[in-house]
Amino acid sequence: MSNQIDLSIIIPTYNRLVLLQNAIASFHNQLDCTYEAIIVDDGSTDGTREYLQTLEAPFISILQDHLGAAAARNTGMNALRGRYVKFLDDDDLLDPQVLQRQMKYLDQNQDVEVCYSDWGQLFQYTDRDVADEKKLVIAGEKGEILDELLSDWWCSPANYLYRNRCITNIRWDLNAWSLDDFDFVVHVSIDGARFGYLPTAPEVASWNRVIVNVPSLARRDLVRRFHAHKFLLDKFSDLLKEKGLLTPKRKCLLARQYFNVALRLMAHDRTKSDQCIQKMRALCPDFSPPGRRMPILVRLIGYKGALALLHRLGRL
Question: Is this structure's pTM higher than 0.85?
């Protein structure tokens, strides 16, 4: 890699000019290292492209048709030069001091390839005139990071700082839809990258914006998200089996995930819900569902019957 620099920040954006400007302001002229900020515009029509033309180094602007955030991140990855890589959504914010502490941590721990820290949620209300609220999230030291991820542990994507070398052969999956960040970090873990925790509270690596009191996802979007979750579980199961990493514990963790997706899909796609139950039972025949009533119903009428009954009763 020619002309390598310290850090690449990749920012996909689409029609969120004001938020993008806030994201840029959270780190610009505040980093004591060589860096580039690669902004990939995903077909904006709100003046973002005109704004990007006014930016100079260390900003690199790339324009593409509207292909989605995952495709935009991949475009940015194809152009990066940094030893370290940070993915920043256009509505999130970085703490430059914590980012430099993460870089120093990786410099001092050459066996660690991904650094994560404490992070925060920024709740933005749209239906009333109140100030934004902030919530600190303590990420905490984890054991086997892949098992934690399969147990629904999650960090904001901007919380992670990656060594370039550990993501060279990984790309964001365009079929993962809104779960593409989950898919990406799971693949990094499956590839063998070692994760290291750098505690930073009360400071945070990033602020993840949460829009409160907006209309719920349309039904088709909810179903699409559930289908994407099943797609990823199928992919993870196959990949772990192929690499000899499908341990009994991970079979049970995946089985629980399949069960949760089956619950959500029952009201929308009975066929996919049944497929999730089949996958769950194949992975972990002794799996016991959570709660008090569900295990009893399963023993009496089986998984499919229990889900169908709860659906008819309006419990799903």
Answer: yes
